[in-house]
Amino acid sequence: MKKVKISGINKSLANPSDYGNLLHELKGIIIKGQNKAYKAIDNIKVQTYWQIGERIVREELKNKDRAEYEKYLIENLAVDLNIGKRVLYEIVKFYRAYPIVQTVSAQLSWSHYVELIELSDNKERQFYESKIVANSWSIRELKEQIKNRLYQKTDDKEKEKMLKTKLPAVVDLQKIFKPDYDFNFLEIAPSHQEKELEDKIISNIEYFLKELGNDFMFLGRQVPILIDNEKHYIDLVLYHRGIPCVILVDLKADKLDSRDIGQMNKYIGYYRHNRQYVYENDTIGLIICKELGHEEVIYALDGLEEKIFVSLYKTKLPSEERIKRAVRGIN
């Protein structure tokens, strides 16, 4: 039996270019995973610090008649919680600058907020918040722009535009995806096939996106992916700016089968591991079908309700005049 050396690699065992591609891909997966983990941890830190700040300030207000009570709290809590006094002062300052938790953005790190709370002007803070999100500024870039007085140098109209820009907020997915869609604009026969349904949607893509709702964008149809050297094709790939994330759409011109949900879950897994950017939320699946069994959906989706959405669609026959025009066209 031939032994393979672990150290002192035998280069004849593999194609160097294949190994190089594999190494590059794995490094990308690791970096992406690390970035997502760091971002998640930092978001938890921001939320936790806001809660700590809120509780400390609430305690101060209860004892506002006692001089230097804040100093007393900070010095003792720093020891008992093993948190630096400077950090605790920053936490309190953070809460006072952002007393409404909904104004705290998941797109900004704690380090961003440490710089922003030094700005006394609320509008100036909001301006830089929007700039950070729009331009993906690092802490160094934020410090540099504040030092260079970008806010003061910016035209008033541009300032107003930035101040009106809403930062990404937590989105209620249940309100984005409807339980049913009206595809009457397709004017398609009841006995249609999936290919015909897809063709009609592409021909009426503007109406289709309008029916789905705001912020939906079309990225492609029959998008190929490769799993275990076998090609699979995703009917439609969309993007939602408000979430933001990629949405994979599967069109079913008949009754939904639980296997359709399993297939969609597989495609989502592929996208999340291979095509999802760090700044995006997790890819979502949307199955739009002509008919479904409610119990089948409930049991098949168990635990996947925020990952895969199932909706019905309805259509109507083409008008009599349109049928006549089509017949004349054939003749």
Structural commentary:
By secondary structure, this protein is of the alpha/beta class. It has three domains: 13-104; 119-169, no CATH class; 173-321, 3-Layer(aba) Sandwich (Trna Endonuclease, Chain: A, domain 1). The protein contains 14 helices and six strands. It has helices spanning 16-62, 69-80, 85-97, 110-116, 122-135, 139-147, 150-153, 156-164, 173-176, 194-203, 205-212, 258-274, 294-300, 320-330, and strands spanning 180-182, 216-227, 230-240, 245-255, 284-291, 308-314. Strands 1-6-5-4-3-2 form a six-stranded mixed sheet, with helices on both faces. Helix 1 (16-62) packs across helix 3 (85-97). It is elongated, with a radius of gyration of 27 Å. The chain starts with 15 loop residues before the first helix and ends with a helix. 19% of the residues are buried. Residues 1-7 have low confidence and may be disordered.
Question: What is the share of helical residues?
Answer: 40-55%
Based on CA atoms alone, the radius of gyration comes out at 27 Å
Q: Give the domain tally.
A: 3
- Quickly give the CATH architecture of the largest domain: 3-Layer(aba) Sandwich
Number of strands: 6
| CATH class label of the largest domain | Alpha Beta
Mean pLDDT: 83
Strand arrangement, major sheet = 1-6-5-4-3-2
The succession of helices and strands, N to C, reads: HHHHHHHHHEHHEEEHEHEH
Distance between the termini: 74 Å
Notable characteristics:
alpha/beta; Trna Endonuclease, Chain: A, domain 1; 331 residues; 16% strand; 6 strands; six-stranded mixed β-sheet
What is the element layout, followed by pairings?
Blueprint: H1 16-62, H2 69-80, H3 85-97, H4 110-116, H5 122-135, H6 139-147, H7 150-153, H8 156-164, H9 173-176, E1 180-182, H10 194-203, H11 205-212, E2 216-227, E3 230-240, E4 245-255, H12 258-274, E5 284-291, H13 294-300, E6 308-314, H14 320-330
Parallel strand pairs: 1-6, 4-5, 5-6
Antiparallel strand pairs: 2-3, 3-4
